[in-house]
Amino acid sequence: MPNNNDLLSRISVDPNICSGKPCIKGHRIWVSLILGYLAGGESIETILEEYPGVEKEDILACITYGAEMSRN
């Protein structure tokens, strides 16, 4: 399993992309959207089917990002 730093490098926060909201690097998919799907009971596999090009590590990165932000 990738370490947290490797996972977090998959998340981008850029004021010129998605109004600065954290998103999966290379995609315009918000971290909060993915976390919302997971909180609603969607599986990682279902999310991956819905978003071609997104990898399992991207989903894990969203979870890691959410965990890190909740610590601050």
From TrEMBL:
Pfam families: DUF433. InterPro entries: DUF433 (IPR007367), Homeodomain-like_sf (IPR009057), WH-like_DNA-bd_sf (IPR036388). This is Antitoxin. It comes from Dulcicalothrix desertica PCC 7102. The lineage of its organism: Bacteria, Bacillati, Cyanobacteriota, Cyanophyceae, Nostocales.
